[in-house]
Amino acid sequence: MADKHYRSIVKAVSWRATGSVDTLIISYLITGKLKWALTISGVELFTKIGLYYAHERIWEKLSFGRIKEPTKPSFDI
After folding, report:
1. Contacts for 14-23 with beta carbons within 8 Å, 24 or more apart?
2. How far apart are CA 49 and CA 11, in angstroms?
3. Alpha-carbon dihedral sign for residues 12, 13, 18, 19
4. What is the rounded CA–CA span in Å between residue 16 and residue 42?
5. pTM to 2 decimals?
6. Other CB atoms closer than 10 Å to residue 16's CB: what's the count?
7. b (16+ CB within 10 A) / e for 36-51
8. Which residues fall within 8 angstroms of residue 76, CB to CB, at 6 or more apart?
9. What is the pLDDT along the chain (77 residues), one digit of tens a residue?
10. HEC per residue, 6-75
11. How far apart, in whole angstroms, are the C-alpha atoms of residue 59 and residue 77?
12. Which of 8, 23, 48, 50 sits a CA distance of 20 to 30 A from 58?
């Protein structure tokens, strides 16, 4: 079963929201400046959504690690 494009976009946004909070905290701990931390996490939020979406769509096209579902028999008379 293949995923729709909007599923990949929603997954990318939800994952990046989580990742951006992590980046915000780490950036603040390293710089000690909230403005810098917000800037860093804000920029990477958008760049990484695009990268994740592209990554997700490429993996959707690969058969690596997938098991083919058996075809259902046809009962034509």
Report:
1. 15/52, 16/45, 16/48, 16/49, 16/52, 17/45, 19/44, 19/48, 20/44, 20/45
2. 9
3. positive
4. 10
5. 0.60
6. 22
7. ebeebbeebbeebbee
8. none
9. 677 888 888 887 888 889 889 999 999 999 999 999 999 998 988 888 888 888 888 988 888 888 877 777 777 66
10. HHHHHHHHHHHHHHHHHHHHHHHHHHCCHHHHHHHHHHHHHHHHHHHHHHHHHHHHCCCCCCCCCCCCCC
11. 40
12. 23
Q: What token pair was written down for 41?
A: 């996490």
Q: How many residues are given for the chain?
A: 77
In the structure encoding, which two tokens stand for residue 20, read together? 């951006």
